[in-house]
Structure formats: structure tokens, C-alpha cells
Amino acid sequence: EADIYQTPRYLVIGTGKKITLECSQTMGHDKMYWYQQDPGMELHLIHYSYGVNSTEKGDLSSESTVSRIRTEHFPLTLESARPSHTSQYLCASSESPGQGPEKLFFGSGTQLSVL
Amino acid sequence: GNSVTQMEGPVTLSEEAFLTINCTYTATGYPSLFWYVQYPGEGLQLLLKATKADDKGSNKGFEATYRKETTSFHLEKGSVQVSDSAVYFCALSDQGFQKLVFGTGTRLLVSP
After folding, report:
1. 10-residue block means of pLDDT along chain B (112 residues)?
2. Residues of A in contact with B46 (CB under 8 A)
């Protein structure tokens, strides 16, 4: 059912590398989100976007950055990865306000390990 | 601010047992309430929702009733299956539907 895709599924990299996690959706949703999920399963919102050229920081401070140049694409970038960035990263999208209660569609996630 | 509190897991049950996962919330106004489920190796998916007081959301045998007087949205299922093993997240949306606030998740383990 979900048409939201994340790549890569798993990524193991060394400290100091620059990485980009990809997220794409084909549903035409305006709103997109990045969540960081720690090993204890808790979800932390780190970035969100209301549409093209809109990006906002979430509830948890993150050294990552995002961009929204196209509706369907919401990549997350880490300029210099560190072991503390090791986590599961989940991308999600939803329809615009006014469409009813918020239903998020999630990708399968990227498991990032920084050595 | 808005927040969601879930019971800690893991919850371990035998197949066909009755399930309750507690969820309470703190919110201003009248939020919508949700249960999301995360199966191993996957992202979250919406399980059920309720948009106003006394609404009952249901799906796949799971139910939850929006109780404003107790600010609760407990998840129940009469007879769990091994395939229900997953992590369950309670969530609420603020009035502007700008974003969801998730609970910490409760892992359910069902054994044959």
C-alpha cells in the first residue's frame, strides 16, 4: 500500500564521511517527515516539511540537514558522520491539512551504523 | 505540551490470550488519537484511529476507545496471534494536524 521508499536500507560507514539518506514518495503528499528511532524504539522528530522549499527542525536537535526541492523527494544529509549518529532513520509523508486526521505513511527505514 | 504515555514492554502473551496496551495522553484541545504498528524490519503503519471523544477505532480485531474523561486510548484485542508480534505506538495529533506526537512504543511478543 505504501508508496514511500527509502534507500539505502542499511549503511555502515566510517567516522567523518558525508552521507545522504534518500526518501521518495509517489503519492503527491505535501508534508514529509524524518524521524530518528533509537534502540529503545522511541521516535524523535528531527525534520519536517510542509511542501517544496519548506523545511523545519523537529523536536530533537539534529546535526543533519534536509532539502525539499521537489514534492516527491526529501533527502537527509550528514556532513560528517559520527558514532553518535548510529540509529534507524524513518521517513514519512502525509496529505495536507484539511484532509482529515493525520495519517502518516512510513518508509521501511535506513539503519545507519557509524564506526 | 502534548505528550503520550504508554505502558512499558515487552508484553509477553500466549496465542489466543487477551491483550491490553495502556495509553494515556496530555493535550490541549481535542486531539485525534492513533495506534501505529511496526512489524520487524519495517516502518510504522496506521492500525486504527479515533477523532473525537467516545469514538471507537477498530481494525484487524484490535480496538481502542477515545476516553476524554480518563484521557486514555487503550489498545485491546480479544485473542492475539503470533503474527501480532510487533511494536505498538500510541500517538496524538495536535489541533493543527501539523505533526504527530508518539509514545515510546510497547513491544508485544506472542508465543505459540
Report:
1. 89 97 91 93 91 94 96 97 96 74 94 96
2. 103-104
Q: pLDDT in tens for each of the 115 residues of chain A? A: 559 999 999 999 999 999 999 999 999 998 999 999 987 788 899 999 989 999 999 888 889 999 999 999 999 999 999 999 999 999 999 876 655 557 889 999 999 999 9
CA-to-CA distance for A55 and A66, rounded, in angstroms? 7
Is there a contact between A90 and B100 if contact means CB atoms under 8 Å apart?
no
Query: Rounded to whole angstroms, how far apart are CA atoms A40 and A25?
Result: 27
Rounded to an integer, what distance in angstroms lies between the CA atom of residue B22 and that of residue A2? 28
Which of B32, B38, B100, B109 is the best mutation test for A, with the most CBs of A within 10 A?
B100
Whether B107 and chain A come into contact, CB under 8 Å, resolves to yes
Closest listed residue to residue B65, CA positions, set B101, B35, B86: B35
Residue A102 identity (one-letter amino acid)? E
Residue contacts between A and B (CB atoms, under 8 Å): 59
**How far from chain centre, in Å, is Cα B71?**
13
- Going by C-alpha positions, the residue among A14, A33, A29 that lies closest to residue A81 is A14
User: What pLDDT digit, counting tens, does each position of B69-88 carry?
Assistant: 999 999 999 999 999 999 99
Which three-class secondary structure state does DSSP give residue A84? helix
